[in-house]
Amino acid sequence: MIDTAILIGPRLKLARKNARLSQKELAALCGIGQSHISAMERNARAPSIEMLASLADALSVTSHWLLGGDSCATLGDTETGRAHILADSKAAPGLESLAGDLAMCAVLNIQPTEWQALRSLTTPHPITKEGYVAMLLVLRGHRLT
């Protein structure tokens, strides 16, 4: 049997840092204590299935990736989220700025398909963070009609 804690610790820490969250902030998002996050990152404790799903959701990654799954299969070009945009050195600066604004992302509740749509935009001139927010609102308005 594979010890999943060994696989989860480094990935959990990487995803948390890419999401620019402290252990305390991630713990609050998941409804647990900071020491629990610390123990999981040190491989001293493995998360329950429910906690794994909560961590993945909070970090915009998949449970499969946290468990050591291949990032190419799990985090392919069509699947994006805050953490993935922040980790992508080729991400547009305006989109990276939006992904790095945790408070704005929380208010906007940007869904994976919306991150994908924003990431796919190509323009002759760079789009600012505010421009990406405007595009998101346009996309949402278009879906409603």
Short recap of the structure:
The chain has 11 helices and no strands. It is mainly alpha-helical and 145 residues long.
3D architecture notes:
With 145 residues, the chain is mostly helical. The protein has two domains: 4-74, lambda repressor-like DNA-binding domains (434 Repressor (Amino-terminal Domain), Orthogonal Bundle); 82-144, no CATH class. Helices cover 66% and strands 0% of the residues. It contains eleven helices and no strands. The protein has helices at residues 4-18, 23-30, 34-41, 49-59, 63-66, 71-74, 82-87, 93-100, 102-108, 112-120, 129-144. The longest helix has 16 residues, at 129-144. The radius of gyration is 16 Å and the shape is elongated.
Descriptors:
elongated, single chain, mainly alpha, 434 Repressor (Amino-terminal Domain)
Number of helices: 11
| N-to-C SSE string, H for helix and E for strand | HHHHHHHHHHH
CATH topology of the largest domain: 434 Repressor (Amino-terminal Domain)
Basic shape = elongated
Number of strands: 0
Present the secondary structure layout.
Layout (H helix, E strand, L loop, with lengths): L3 H15 L4 H8 L3 H8 L7 H11 L3 H4 L4 H4 L7 H6 L5 H8 L1 H7 L3 H9 L8 H16 L1
